[in-house]
């Protein structure tokens, strides 16, 4: 990984020394840059950009140039030091993104070729940098014609939506799923995947000045019903749908409880976030008498547990297919030049507990 | 059911009219009594005793005399009107107990005989009465030599303990289970069943004046560790055990969260009560990053779903076997003559949120 390369490269090693006799097309020598932080804190303050040499790949290594990488909430929390998993410092942030293979090492015998598009197979690859050197076991090849933003953002959020719809309760044609934070990147993916499999969605969002605009947007994506937290209990449209057996919760606190109360007997609420900074509150009666189950989902764990599992490739194939056919749009986003990373970090911070557009770092490479 | 018989019996029908030509031994005519309430409220105030005629069983009916019936928390809450399920009023309380068959109807072709001991198969049979007429499908025959108190109390509390240890996480020899409210009737059964299958128990109880006495009592039952809520976090004895994958929670609120935090990655907390009158509070991180699952258990639902399932008989056989071999003692209890039911109701109410000894109504019949 680049992080290791950065740390391990003795400063005396000049790029000019990289002419190592590799056959043409397998060499690469240039200058790149990475973002890095050495202490936890406010991302705008602790993250710095650093010029770094880009060595040629050796042995079975693959050199990729990054094309685009999102700023996800988990990246922000990792930098702040509040995330569940903390890398050793200094660290290059970035858990997701899409790159293009530019060269492979002399001893490389794998299936990747320059020009191939790849996304990380491993967690915490450190995607906020222009170039990455990695073994190809760390990477997953994706369709060459994949849209840039889709490719950069498909694994984490749509992956989370896909698994939550698939792994907890069997939901099929005509069933209903309820979710809060429905305008989150995961929420938008949930709506679209649900449409593709014929599942109704009850989408709960917080009230806000432009609420009608947001409702229209989610409805355009395919939301069956969009309600504010206040409207949820009394909504006739909600009552008219089959009671949901699956609830997806990224807010927790009172909103989580309200959503949980809509579940049919024996339903499951899957928590994947805590935007309210409150715990999940489960009424005793819901658990005992209505047989409600409360679970959690973490894409990172799922990926680790299914590192090379065919289910993972199957999921990505399915998601890219949906995206290609126009059924899964990338989240509402802003492409930010890598050099303006500070702007991306600033805009990625929640404002009054709400997240704005997904910030995506775009590299000059792309 | 007696309730129906009570209600349906025209007052003009005299006991003297019950000489219906049944062969000797199939007749029965006497006077009995039932407890009854016509409105929800304080059990001591709303429950009244009523003399009732005891008709002879007709057709395929079975007449049993009650021997003993406990006052369970669910009975109290049902009378108060705070329980999840409410019977139509007026109603005869009592969900559990043991009776003895005294006569069967003319057309009876089942396997029960006078002298057989039986417990309810159905929920809400209304056991707080001297006699019950029911079809034998409402009853389960139990071993004739079963101890009176064991028979009267085995189905609900030890049944709950048994199922929670069996149906959520596989716990076997050397594993650990943690529970709060460990001195409850269910808790005491958990400790003893766990001992019988080689499972360690971490038992959390609230601090109280006679705490050492309580610790000694639970230790005598086989508890591996007994700690107060305050001692739980820092207990070296707790840390020395394999982390529990199963937690049993009848308190909820903060106590539930404290117990949940002790669970190993991927563990399950099963809630079967809310003594604190607080909801179950699940930290978001526990759900997402530690993959903790929160479930609920309700014996009534299990029994309904397994009404005639062999698993039910298997469970009762196992529990009676444990009891017979001295490995499962009945809960700490007081036998109260049926005529003193008011005393039993009073003593069954929680004092400062704590339950005292199990109150068991004992009928003159026994």
Roughly how many Å is the radius of gyration of chain A? 22 Å
* Element-by-element helix/strand order of chain A: HEHEEHEEEEHHEHEHEHHEHEEHEHHEHE
Give the overall silhouette of chain A.
globular
Mean pLDDT of chain A: 91
Cα distance spanning the termini of chain A: 21 Å
Taken as a percent bin, the fraction of beta residues of chain A is: 15-25%
Tell me the number of helical segments of chain A per DSSP (H or I, 4 or more residues long). Answer: 14
Count of DSSP strands of chain A: 16
Give a quick account of the main beta sheet of chain A: strands, pairing sense, barrel closure: 7 strands, mixed
Structural class by sheet pairing and helices of chain A: alpha/beta
- Measured as a percent range, the helix fraction of chain A is 25-40%
Low-confidence segments of chain A, given as residue ranges, are: 1-28
User: Most extensive interface, residues per chain?
Assistant: A-B, 29 and 29 residues
Subunit arrangement of the protein: homodimer
């Amino acid at each position: 990984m680049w992080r290791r390369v950065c740390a391990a490269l003795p400063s005396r090693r000049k790029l000019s020394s990289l002419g190592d006799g590799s056959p043409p097309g397998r060499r690469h020598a240039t200058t790149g840059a990475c973002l890095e932080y050495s202490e936890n804190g406010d991302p705008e303050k602790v993250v710095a950009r650093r010029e770094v040499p880009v060595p040629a790949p050796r042995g079975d290594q693959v050199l990729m140039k990054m094309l685009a990488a999102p700023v996800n909430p988990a990246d922000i929390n990792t930098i702040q030091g509040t995330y569940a998993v903390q890398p050793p410092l200094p660290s290059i942030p970035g858990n997701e993104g899409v790159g293009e293979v530019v060269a492979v090492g002399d001893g490389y015998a794998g299936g990747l070729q320059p020009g191939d598009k790849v996304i990380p197979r491993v967690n915490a690859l450190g995607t906020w940098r222009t170039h990455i050197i990695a073994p190809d076991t760390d990477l997953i090849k994706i369709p060459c014609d994949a849209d840039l933003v889709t490719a950069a953002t498909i694994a984490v959020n749509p992956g989370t939506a896909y698994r939550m719809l698939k792994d907890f309760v069997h939901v099929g044609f005509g069933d209903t799923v309820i979710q809060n934070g429905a305008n989150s990147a995961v929420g938008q993916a949930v709506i679209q995947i649900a449409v593709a499999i014929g599942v109704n969605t009850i989408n709960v969002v917080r009230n806000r000045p432009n609420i009608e605009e947001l409702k229209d947007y989610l409805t355009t994506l395919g939301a069956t019903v969009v309600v504010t937290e206040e409207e949820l209990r009394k909504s006739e449209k909600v009552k008219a749908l089959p009671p949901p057996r699956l609830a997806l919760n990224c807010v927790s606190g009172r909103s989580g409880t309200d959503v949980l109360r809509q579940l049919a007997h024996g339903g499951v609420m899957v928590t994947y976030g805590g935007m309210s900074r409150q715990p999940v509150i489960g009424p005793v009666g819901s658990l005992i008498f209505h047989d409600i189950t409360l679970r959690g989902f973490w894409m990172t764990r799922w990926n680790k547990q299914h590192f090379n599992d065919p289910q993972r490739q199957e999921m990505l194939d399915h998601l890219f297919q949906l995206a290609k056919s126009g059924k899964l749009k990338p989240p509402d986003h802003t492409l930010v030049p890598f050099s303006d990373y500070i702007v991306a970090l600033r805009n990625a911070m929640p404002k009054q507990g709400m997240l704005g557009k997904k910030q995506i770092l775009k590299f000059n490479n792309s």
